[in-house]
Amino acid sequence: MRPEILYPLFADIASLKGVGSKTLKLLQNLLGGTKIVDLIFHLPSNIIDRSYRPKLRDAIPGRICTIRAKVIAHLPPKSKHQPYKVVVEDETEQLSLIFFKVYAETIAKNLPVGATRVISGKLEIFNGNLQMSHPDYIAREEDSSQIPIFETVYPLTAGISNKMINKYIDQALQKVPEMQEWLDEEFIKKQGWNSFRDALMKAHHPQYKTELEPFCKDRARLAYDELLANQLALAIVRERVKKQAGRVLKGNGLLRKKIMDTLPFALTNAQKNVLAEIYADQAEPFRMLRLLQGDVGSGKTIVALLAMLNAVESGVQAAIMAPTEILAKQHFETIAPMCEKIGVKVELLTGKTKGKKRAEILQELKEGKINIIVGTHALFQEDIAYKDLGFAVVDEQHRFGVHQRLSLSEKGNKCDILVMTATPIPRTLVLTSYGDMEYSKIDQLPEGRKPTETRVMPISKLNETVAALKRKIAEGVRAYWVCPLVEESEKSDLAAAEARFADLQKIFGPEVGLVHGKMKEAEKDKVMERFKKGAIKLLVATTVIEVGVNVPEATIMIIEHAERFGLAQLHQLRGRIKRGNVQGSCLLLYSLPLSATAQERLKIMRQTEDGFIIAEKDLELRGGGEILGTRQSGFCEFRLADMEYHKNLLFIANQDAKLILNKDPNLASPRGKALRNLLYLFEKDDSIKNYKA
Ligand code: ADP
Ligand code: MG
Questions:
Q1: CB within 10 Å: which end of the chain, N or C, has fewer?
Q2: Which pTM does this prediction carry?
Q3: What value does the CA radius of gyration of the chain take, rounded to a whole number of Å?
């Protein structure tokens, strides 16, 4: 339950003075919520300094000025298109106030001839005369203190003025209670930070531009609070998963030895290290939830297989789940022949497995005759019962979030879970979005891998490209020709891919095939099958081949409109032609105009093949939020922290969270209690809902 001290902050914005239902809707769009907290975390973007109070003769046009002047005359417009003018003067000069579209009565009331007024706004020069259009403030002398010397400017939306939001935020800030400090006293002292409440007040009342910068101490403090809440919540979930009873999986190593004997290679050190971590987890009597990261071609499949064999040796069943039919099938085709040799039974179960075959598999799963099952989501449907599923590998999991992972881990019978992702994830994103899991990384490729040759060329070189391709294909090489298929322009993209296919057909004849996302699954499979067998030598494809397909003979890739692809996507695609001993060749064809970011992306692709570097760059170029071509909830959730500036704070928060839980797992100490407030403040209610008060 949310602590009472926070109730005022979770009251509805509608309870504030001056917020009607129309304003409320606008605010909701602007803030992403309708609670008081949503307002207090909406930080200013600028300040207007009104402290410049020159005499008119000395005033510098272009600046915001606050002047004291006497109203001399009103000059109403002579035609509809003219503005309403009011002439004022101080001891030194005259100034025209200009109003478009304002009621004459209001102007007459606010600026009676003969009166002295304090006026603030931007001074301009027009036809050699001083003027000010629509002054921001016009006040009587006795009220001039109402004109803020430093006016805080907030990000706005149409229909909400800066004055309005200032008023709302002022009211909201008054509801912020003094709370017990949740940060370590020493740490705060070292950083020179204010308390949460003071930092918040200061952040909303900046006096200098430097106080708007993410590094300034008050903003840093707030960012840290948000990051700590995130890291602590994830750490709590991680601990909770770990404490759940799990299976002790500790095989005798016989199957694993047999498999290793059949392999033409030895494991890399990175693979060995990662396996040691996985085996250690499996042997614990607690639930395992571990993320395995490795670049394309780093050899995750064999790692997953060995971990599954450890489970099979321990007498339980293992499952591996892929996000698509094609990928599931491919895993099956890799794993099944290897397992057959050592007497381990593997089957494939997807949405397409129907009728007798399906019934048979279900029966054998129930009886425990199947040791390893490969499949899609179909593996976890309700009618599927395992004899004893003890270990599950989930491949390509970047499509899922923390909550889906939790629900998955609740499915199996105390099932240990290994999550594999083929796309390198930047370290910061691992911490913020996958912080609920343990983490292993294969940071080394098998030896002897030849780097892919990557070239960038304008589409105008198409004819030469095709000629070169023709020679290569005559030599027996297979190639991909990738055309983009992006949602917004799907139809025209599809047409472009089909047109390219038709063009190439004229040159290559029946050796060209086409696959795209709009084709039926069976049709796609058929084309892919022919490409694998070599009946098709050149495969024109939209990005459906992005993840996972494996055709060893295909070592050339041409990517058309490469400027339209994201970095991570390009990296994944290129990974398809990375083979053991043959050098792959990747040609990035671009069309003009080329944006600065697109240029940068193509340059990075030429410079490096390291997926982790590419992932970091991708994040930088995209500014977070979107990665892997799918929307990632990673950084969008932060309101105060900004990964461009607060990376270091994230790493500190990560350590801090671990220390906190080590010392005080139930958050029962005074600091622990204060930290509960922090968690609720940032709406991490889920993570502590089971905690005793
Ligand atoms: P990914 O991490 O992309 O899933 P795979 O598991 O598909 O990579 O492995 C890519 C290729 O590398 C496969 O052909 C696999 O047999 C091979 N491979 C895996 N580990 C090694 C190793 N230690 N030495 C040499 N080749 C390896
Ligand atoms: Mg793979």
A1: C
A2: 0.73
A3: 32
